[in-house]
């Protein structure tokens, strides 16, 4: 039992309640480095508070990981909520840029040799 001077350290609402018991969404999981931003559309007044908080934080460009940190929720929960907001048109997402293909080592050696010969 906690006394009046002790602070509550657990969330008042469990993550499975926030997502409606869902562990996934209608789309592939958003990578943590995906950038998201509010679309500027008007939010319905019946939207649950977590969705509203996400839209508030996403006024600027943030990564999924940053949104999770601001909300204090696990990234998996935020990914589900963000996917809902994207499906409803309230959030736009920019997927991460894929890593470049490994460069041809022979070509890089030729470039390096050419640069060295100019020095």
From TrEMBL:
Pfam family, one: DUF742
Cited PANTHER family: DUF742 DOMAIN-CONTAINING PROTEIN (PTHR36221:SF1)
Protein name: DUF742 domain-containing protein
